[in-house]
Amino acid sequence: MKKAFLFVACVLTIQQYVNAQDTTQVSHSASPSVASKEKDALKFNLNENGSHFFQVTFLNQTWVRWNQSNPGTMVDGMAKSNTFDIGLRRTRIQMFGQITDNVFVYFQFGQNNFNSQYNYNSSGGLNRKNAPFFHDAVGEYKATKGNQLKLGGGLTIVNGLSRFSQPSVSSIMTLDVPVFAQATVDQTDQFSRKLSIYARGQIGKFDYRVAISDPFPVLSNGSTASKPTANATFAQKGHSHQFQSYLMYQFFEHESHTTPGYMTGTYLGKKKIFNLAAGIITQPDAMWYAESNGDTTYTKMLLWSVESFLDMPLNKSKGTALSAYAGFFSTNYGPNYLRFNGSMNPATSSNATNAISGAGGTYGNAFPMFGTGKVFYSQLGYLLPTSLLGEKHGQLMPYATWMHASYDRLNGKPMDVIDIGLNWLIKGHNSKLSLDYQNRPTYQTDSNGNVQTGDRKGTVLMQYQIFI
Fold first, then answer.
1. Would you tell me which CATH number, out of the four given (3.40.50.300, 1.20.120.1200, 2.40.160.10, 2.120.10.30), belongs to the domain 2-124+137-467?
2. How is 77-145 classified by DSSP, letter by letter?
3. Does the keyword Signal apply (predicted)?
4. d(CA 141, CA 325)
5. Of 108, 231, 414, 456, whose CB neighbour count within 10 A is largest?
6. Per-residue pLDDT tens digits for 341-357
7. Which of 441, 395, 438 is CA-nearest to residue 420?
8. Per-residue pLDDT tens for 79-130?
9. Which pLDDT belongs to residue 1?
């Protein structure tokens, strides 16, 4: 409790600084998905009327977390039934601008998941200071007078599957994004970014994007080379390109089309948005597995989704708003593909003898996040009236999310992850304190190798976000 008190005290101190800047909220991806004027923005006009400009922004998300460990969890060689850790979920610097009437550039530099176990290696040899890297480096040309067609290329998060495959992390409603929608994260991409060429635009009420991506070899993510097994994994031989497309129909206001890719999490009642969308990613020979006779078979990866997004004011005079999302995902990575993942995992290894093999680290806070099967994901949030805390003290926004997956390798065992949380929007998304409780399943295998459901585990997490 003493640690929590000190943390909150620091938050309140930073809040006073942010309030003193009188900075109006802007939603970025950290990305500038919503354009609005800021009194003290780090913005440099390149012409007299400001239509050509270059801007710099900063984002930092600090996590303080208590976690019930999955069975067999080890931290630095010691068994741990629970953990307490402090870390930086995301630290980012953005640099972007409209250089000419037709040319837009976007760069993002930073790091992710930096806690005490970052780059841990029990045998040594890794360096915790090798964290920051370029997330994005994109150049884009506007081929029409309006937003009908923009052509771009570079290292980019422009994606085909879902709005949460290209999220504006500074503006998300929940404490963290549903990472499963970033389907190949850190396997054949660089934290969801890929080397791509793309076209995107808005024609009437339709918003579209199509991309051809050149994936990274899976072995360049630090994986150890291994032979294919009966369960599909990313192929370690051969190379093929990835094809993506996303189409959205906008019933009310149009979402911003300023930056390449990034899609806003919530507008906090500033816009009236209702969209229906569908997306797809496919890549031939992306996966491999071993047949019963030992032959290696290559198979395509095919992922698609349909989704709806609602974000609108309810009572403008009271400041209330509603945000809701529902999406269905079909994820075919090949026979019995399964991958555990835990965001900024506080643990380092496992001594469990009955863990599911070949599915990544099952320790710490990990759960089966990716797999061949079907996924339903939904979230709902309500922005409470400004009068509740008073206009000078921000607003509260409770929310809930539910991820339900049916993965082939879990043999019919459902995979449900539930989050409930509360945002204190001290200064919109610019200064935000979030508290979240997550409840997740655990799994193990019996003596015959069949998957069994274990005890459910929980995580309590506090995040402070500052965005300038």
1. 2.40.160.10
2. TEE-SEEEEEEEEEEEEEEEEE-SSSEEEEEEEEEEEESTTTT--TT----TT---EEEEEEEEEE-SS
3. yes
4. 31
5. 108
6. 999 999 999 999 999 99
7. 438
8. 999 999 999 999 999 999 999 999 999 999 999 999 998 887 766 667 777 7
9. 45
